[in-house]
Amino acid sequence: PVASLTEPAMQSSPLNALLEHVLQCVEDDADVLATLYGPVFCDTDPVHVYTDGSCLLPGTSRARAGAGVYWGRNADRNTAARVPGLQTSSRGELYAVLVALSMADPLRSL
Question: RNase H type-1 domain spans which residues (predicted)?
Answer without folding.
Answer: 43-110
